[in-house]
């Protein structure tokens, strides 16, 4: 087996502790060609689609990838900015702010699918001297399709790497007090400017119901997050509702569905609604277009009068503070031993080292 090697090692290089934040990913451009590349990588992941592999390969390559890239490209065009994909630019801003807060560490960001890849970032971080690595996926609620898939990407990289760093991995923070506080403050700040609705809807990305019945804790963690946010806001159970969005295919997914909820709320007497997505650490297609546009239409067309989307936590200071403290908790006990690098390099050269 040919391992990933590096020709940039220097015995005089200082060792570092690294923090790699990750998110789902984004196409490189809002074009059918780039969407096809992105969707093929994403939907080929067995963590994302748990289906007999050969049959799914046929469906994916001969049906989905022939139709969906063009449709998805049109949707991405509506959210694309001059800087590029919102998810990419926001995640980069999060990384830059975290680096400022975690100044003693080397902070980078990567995408599970697309660019910059997890493997490319691990490589560049190791080449810069990172020997201890904390992976922080920006998924507050654990889910096999997101969190575990990120671990898979790291593990796959490590199987191809001759020298691997020490590793720590954050698999959820759905009930961390500072995360809950950041969510509550985001909602409160929005309501101070826009008023309070008849109902606050907390919408999370959906997964097939069978993932839950097979043991995935995602559904439970979403509901705990909602309950804690409601407590922080002083809401009773009639003032908020948890829903699940972004389903596709014919099988049953986690319910209640966000889109069906929006269509039924006006009939139930709800005339104003605000939607916040606690599971999304950064605004992206699923929040900007699916919630703020598509689901708004469902609500208004069904008789609703006022619909507001509350932006995700993004790179807001309270969110960065929460992520900083989460990272610090998992970094506890890790230290880099201070050494005389010049002496180390001299000793290594006496033993025949090239650098």
From TrEMBL:
<protein>
    <recommendedName>
        <fullName>Ferrochelatase</fullName>
        <ecNumber>4.98.1.1</ecNumber>
    </recommendedName>
</protein>
<feature type="binding site">
    <location>
        <position position="205"/>
    </location>
    <ligand>
        <name>Fe(2+)</name>
    </ligand>
</feature>
<keyword id="KW-0408">Iron</keyword>
<comment type="function">
    <text>Catalyzes the ferrous insertion into protoporphyrin IX.</text>
</comment>
<dbReference type="InterPro" id="IPR001015">
    <property type="entry name" value="Ferrochelatase"/>
</dbReference>
<dbReference type="Pfam" id="PF00762">
    <property type="entry name" value="Ferrochelatase"/>
</dbReference>
<keyword id="KW-0627">Porphyrin biosynthesis</keyword>
<comment type="pathway">
    <text>Porphyrin-containing compound metabolism; protoheme biosynthesis; protoheme from protoporphyrin-IX: step 1/1.</text>
</comment>
<keyword id="KW-0456">Lyase</keyword>
<comment type="similarity">
    <text>Belongs to the ferrochelatase family.</text>
</comment>
<keyword id="KW-0479">Metal-binding</keyword>
<keyword id="KW-0963">Cytoplasm</keyword>
<dbReference type="InterPro" id="IPR033659">
    <property type="entry name" value="Ferrochelatase_N"/>
</dbReference>
<dbReference type="InterPro" id="IPR033644">
    <property type="entry name" value="Ferrochelatase_C"/>
</dbReference>
<feature type="binding site">
    <location>
        <position position="286"/>
    </location>
    <ligand>
        <name>Fe(2+)</name>
    </ligand>
</feature>
<keyword id="KW-0350">Heme biosynthesis</keyword>
<dbReference type="InterPro" id="IPR019772">
    <property type="entry name" value="Ferrochelatase_AS"/>
</dbReference>
């Amino acid at each position: 087996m040919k391992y990933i090697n590096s020709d940039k090692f220097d015995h005089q290089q200082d060792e570092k502790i690294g923090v790699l934040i990750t998110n789902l990913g984004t196409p490189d451009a809002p074009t059918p060609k780039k969407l096809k590349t992105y969707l093929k990588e994403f939907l080929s992941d067995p963590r994302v689609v748990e289906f007999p592999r050969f049959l799914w390969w046929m469906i994916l390559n001969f049906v989905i990838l022939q139709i969906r890239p063009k449709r998805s490209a049109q949707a991405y065009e509506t959210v694309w900015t001059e800087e590029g994909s919102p998810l990419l630019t926001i995640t980069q801003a999060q990384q830059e702010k975290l680096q400022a807060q975690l100044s003693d560490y080397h902070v980078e960001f990567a995408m599970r699918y697309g660019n910059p890849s997890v493997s490319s970032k691990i490589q560049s971080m190791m080449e810069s001297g990172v020997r201890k690595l904390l992976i922080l996926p920006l998924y507050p609620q654990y889910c096999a399709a997101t969190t575990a898939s990120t671990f898979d990407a790291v593990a796959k990289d490590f199987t191809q790497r001759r020298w691997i760093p020490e590793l720590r991995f954050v698999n959820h923070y759905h009930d961390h007090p500072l995360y809950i506080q950041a969510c509550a403050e985001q909602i409160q700040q929005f309501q101070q400017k826009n008023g309070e609705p008849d109902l606050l809807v907390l919408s999370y990305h959906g997964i097939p119901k069978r993932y839950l019945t097979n043991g995935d804790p995602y559904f439970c963690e979403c509901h705990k997050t909602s309950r804690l946010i409601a407590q922080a806001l002083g809401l009773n159970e009639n003032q908020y509702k948890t829903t699940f969005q972004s389903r596709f295919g014919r099988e049953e997914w986690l319910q209640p569905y966000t889109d069906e909820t929006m269509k039924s709320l006006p009939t139930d007497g709800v005339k104003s609604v605000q939607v916040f997505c606690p599971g999304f650490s950064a605004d992206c297609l699923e929040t900007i277009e699916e919630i703020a546009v598509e689901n708004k239409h469902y609500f208004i067309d069904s008789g609703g009068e006022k619909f507001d989307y509350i932006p995700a936590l993004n790179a807001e200071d309270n969110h960065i503070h929460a992520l900083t403290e989460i990272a610090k908790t998992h970094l506890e006990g890790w230290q880099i031993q201070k050494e005389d690098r010049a002496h180390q390099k001299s000793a290594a050269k006496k033993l025949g080292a090239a650098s």
